[in-house]
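Technical note accompanying the year-one report. For the benefit of new consortium partners, we illustrate the data format agreed upon in the data management plan: each record pairs a sequence with a structure-token string. No post-processing was applied to the example shown here.
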Amino acid sequence: MKQFLNLILFAGLEKDQFNLLEEEIREENRNNLRVCSMICAVLFGGLFVLGLFFRGLLESNLVIYCEAAGVSLIVFLFTRHILPRFPGAVKPVLYLYFFLMIAFCMIISLRRPEYPAVTVIAVLLLIPFLVTDRPACLIGSLALCVLAFCILAWVKKAREVALIDISNALIFGSASMVCALFLMHRRYRFRLMSHQLKYYSETDLLTGACNRNSYERRLHRYEANCYESVTCIYVDVNGLHALNDSKGHAAGDEMLRQVARVLMEQFGKEFTFRIGGDEFVVFRMDVPQETTEADMKEVNRKLEELGYHISSGIAVEKKDQLVINELAVLAESRMYMDKKAYYQITGIDRRKA
């Protein structure tokens, strides 16, 4: 029973694994909604145009086709231009749109009560392929649509046709629910594996910071995404080799973990990279140099309380003069100047440190 509940609520994943995928699933649903609304806008718009020129079945549904095409076009534009700023609204808009499409299909079916419904059944079968959500929500939504259609068919259609529609809705609706359960399980499993592969390929497993591979992939994004300037902070951990020699590599590893933790807490994990054994790089966009210098003082204070010391170099460049590789080289050269000053003050031999 517990395993079945887990399958219904979290698609067979652990709760924390399921929540971990929330952002990716939201983006997938937004893309699906954009594509589906565009296709429906073209499809219903085409049916409306055909209905203007051909009399018969299409002509009787002109208003429905026009309304469905208009709603689909509005949803497409909303999904493309507005919804990215309100990510929490993706799922409600997605469900609302599909409920409206099913309602349009029900109205089309009821316009010709002497014929069994086809479009409603088709949409019911398609929904699990177009929506990614926890199985309980998806199955509950499908059941609600099936119930509503069965009631309308029984009330509005002749008994013989109503019985056909109700039996089709129950059979194919149940098949759609089973399909939804199976698809959500497979889809979430696949997403989890993809997420884990991406995490391991971009994360330094010792410190949790972004790794060198991630650094190389993201480096030039900062040039494109900044508005005014980019700041590069180059950090080198002082005394790592000496600590490894005197207390063992476990102590050195703990030192690196603490340095990474403080940097990530101050600047954010997605902007903090471990690019070498004891070297870290941090990027910031559109932040005044004075703010960065104050933040680095706080980083140094926290690390000194733990008994650790770092050398750092800060370089800032305006967007119109920015060459990201040169910025990193400049920050690195300033870090070496800071490191040299540190060893001169402490009197420690750098070759032994």
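Partners are asked to follow this layout when depositing records. The first strand starts at residue 229 and ends at 238.
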